[in-house]
């Protein structure tokens, strides 16, 4: 662990401090965002691409005054559960009034650097089991837990004791991953980082630098590409965005180091190249991104799918990116919205139809908080 932390600290001081997840300085004469890769014929056939140009309209500010918000999970009644990275708490936000009610503090959270209480997700059987899942950094590792949410108890005491379902994900000052989401198959997908130890991404025995696929109990999910392994894809640097399209295809965002941030279409068992490749590569063994950006334009965290496009929140880039899709490829150049208007953008979650929930991340130590930060926005997209 000392070696991992030392490596993470070295990488942080080498210039990986301006994003959240390791995006560092500029890319010299590198061009701006561009789509990459060639679609397979089966991906093009029978699928209509959305318009090349879209739009974003901010409908309202749902809530203000949030402390280091990271994960967001909509409840069945429309209210929102939001995790605080540094406070280690989960709050419930009333969708109509913005009123915040603390469920409780998650025991064992050890916030430092990019670590803390990160992603949250509801059980696919939430209506009957009332389980809330969370990804957090402990004193020794990153782990996934589940907790009973009892609304009948007093505020601050509504979270049951955490049941750890998966542990041993490497932790570091940087690159802790943290996004969790249940897929259409009701399996739990987990985006992890390599904690600054780049060799972990190519080591399929390590859960670092991977997308993991687990049962709700934390076991390797049936049908995973490697026998008895939780690893779904590997060769990642730091995955903080997971989303599925209407045909149940998985997409993931990934922080680059100095040159290219990525949006990837995830294929089970594929190698996404890090640390040998950052962005598009000529190596046939590596799966190329469908779109890439210079690190100052993106530093991507959460993503969501709506209206035929992937919408990607940019931290250092301070903008919301639209990537229109045809199959598993970008059908037009990515388009940026809200550039610099709300500062750093962390999480984007479908809110139904053409609407998204969008959170800012200006109180995370790397932004410039203004009055009301951090906040949740409701936006309409097309």
Automatic annotation (TrEMBL):
Gly residues bias locations: 18-28
Superkingdom, natural source: Bacteria
Residue span(s) of domain Glucose/Sorbosone dehydrogenase: 66-366
Assigned keywords, A-Z: Signal
InterPro entries hit by this protein: 6-blade_b-propeller_TolB-like, Glc/Sorbosone_DH, Quinoprot_gluc/sorb_DH_b-prop
Name listed for the protein in its UniProt record: PQQ-dependent sugar dehydrogenase
Stretches for region Disordered: 15-54, 195-225
Region forming the signal peptide: 1-19
Biased composition (Polar residues): 30-41
């Amino acid at each position: 662990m000392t070696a991992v932390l030392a490596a993470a600290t070295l990488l942080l001081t080498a210039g990986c401090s301006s994003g959240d997840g390791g995006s560092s300085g500029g890319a010299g004469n590198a061009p701006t965002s561009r789509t990459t890769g060639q679609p397979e014929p089966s991906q093009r056939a029978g699928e209509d691409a959305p318009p090349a140009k879209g739009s974003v309209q901010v409908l309202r500010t749902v809530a203000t005054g949030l402390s280091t918000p990271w994960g967001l999970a909509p409840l069945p009644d429309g209210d929102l559960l939001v995790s605080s990275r540094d406070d280690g708490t989960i709050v419930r936000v009333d969708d109509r009034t913005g009123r915040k009610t603390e469920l409780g503090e998650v025991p064992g959270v050890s916030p430092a650097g990019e670590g803390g209480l990160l992603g949250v997700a509801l059980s696919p059987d939430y209506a009957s089991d009332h389980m809330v899942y969370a990804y957090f950094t402990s004193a020794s590792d990153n782990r996934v837990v589940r907790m009973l949410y009892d609304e009948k108890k007093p505020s601050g005491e509504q979270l049951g004791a955490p049941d750890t379902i998966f542990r041993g994900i490497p932790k570091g000052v940087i690159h802790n991953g943290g996004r969790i989401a249940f897929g259409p198959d009701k399996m739990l997908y987990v985006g992890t980082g390599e904690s600054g130890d780049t060799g972990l991404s190519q080591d399929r025995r390590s859960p670092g630098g991977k997308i993991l696929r687990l049962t709700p109990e934390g076991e390797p999910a049936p049908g995973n590409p490697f026998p008895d392994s939780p690893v779904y894809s590997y060769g990642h640097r730091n995955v903080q965005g997971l989303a599925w399209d209407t045909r149940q295809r998985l997409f993931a965002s990934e922080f680059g180091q100095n040159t290219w941030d990525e949006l990837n279409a995830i294929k089970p068992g594929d190698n996404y190249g890090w640390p040998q490749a950052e962005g598009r590569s000529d190596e046939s063994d590596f799966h190329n991104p469908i779109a890439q950006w210079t690190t100052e334009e993106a530093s991507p965290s959460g993503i969501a799918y709506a209206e035929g496009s992937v919408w990607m929140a940019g931290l250092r880039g301070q903008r919301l990116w639209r990537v229109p899709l045809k199959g598993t490829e970008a059908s037009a150049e990515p388009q940026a919205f809200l550039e610099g208007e709300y500062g750093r953008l962390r999480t984007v979650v479908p809110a139904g139809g053409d609407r998204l929930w969008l959170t800012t991340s200006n109180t995370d130590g790397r932004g410039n908080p203004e009055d009301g930060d951090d906040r949740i926005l409701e936006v309409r997209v097309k």
